[in-house]
Design goal:
10 helices, alpha/beta, 8 strands, four-stranded parallel beta sheet
Length: 239
């Protein structure tokens, strides 16, 4: 699954969804407006109530509310009790615009590093635990076995990892895979149909060969998996 080329004329940076997201981010760039959104995440409030809770005069509240409404973050409803009174509500769909768009349907995720002995193995094991999309790993110059420290940290973290299995990218990558290079060498070496769709520049823990280095690589990979997994739409795994 090679990622689509990004247009060189800047049109990708002017897409309607990206422009909407930029307006929302800009509206939230003021501490007072962010505080208003925080309060409205918990419940609706009249402008005067917001002013009292935040210690802001009515003219400033009116200004901030106008900016947030223009960005599509707030809507105003009329009280069913006192029709002269209105309440502000958060528009949750607008907050959803803050998240990056989901990636196209992915049949499988393939993590690649040089020796397929540490980073790619741990990343695939983390991914299999994170969600429904299948994952595997490969190397550009695979080692004979998985590094013992990678096996040990996988055991400590409750991850499934076969210590005897490594593989070459040529035997693993197929059409429909999302290929993620988890080392700089693999990212720079692989070209053509095998070129990675994404690159995670994770330092090689084998260079130092210490528990601390492997713990740092694990933490880096775990954070990246947690951030990417919600953006992946599972594809057909039967093809």
């Amino acid at each position: 699954m090679n990622a689509e080329a990004v247009p060189s004329d800047g049109t990708a940076a002017q897409s309607p969804r990206l422009l909407r997201r930029a307006r929302v981010h800009a509206a939230l760039g003021d501490p007072a407006r962010l505080a208003i959104v925080d309060l409205l995440c918990l419940g609706d409030a009249a402008p005067g109530e917001l002013g009292r809770q935040l210690g802001l005069p009515s003219n400033l509240i009116a200004h901030h509310v106008k900016v947030l409404q223009s960005a599509g973050l707030l809507r105003r409803t009329r009280s069913e009790g006192d029709r002269r009174r209105s309440y502000l509500q958060l528009a949750p769909e607008a907050l959803g615009e803050l998240a990056p768009p989901a990636l196209p349907a992915v049949r499988r995720v393939v993590f690649v590093c040089t020796h397929n002995s540490a980073r790619s193995q741990l990343a695939a094991a983390l991914w299999r635990k994170a969600g429904p999309t299948p994952a595997t790993s490969a190397g550009t110059r695979p080692a004979a076995r998985v590094h013992p420290r990678a096996v040990a940290i996988a055991d400590r973290r409750g991850l499934e990892l076969d210590p005897r299995h490594t593989a070459h990218v040529a035997d693993v990558i197929t059409d429909g895979d999302l290929v993620i290079a988890v080392c700089d060498n693999a990212h720079e070496e692989l070209t053509g149909q095998s070129a990675p769709d994404l690159h995670w520049s994770v330092p090689d823990p084998v260079r130092l060969d210490t528990d601390a280095a492997f713990d740092a690589a694990y933490a880096d990979l775990a954070g990246r998996v947690d951030r990417l997994a919600p953006a992946i739409t599972p594809g057909d795994t039967n093809g």
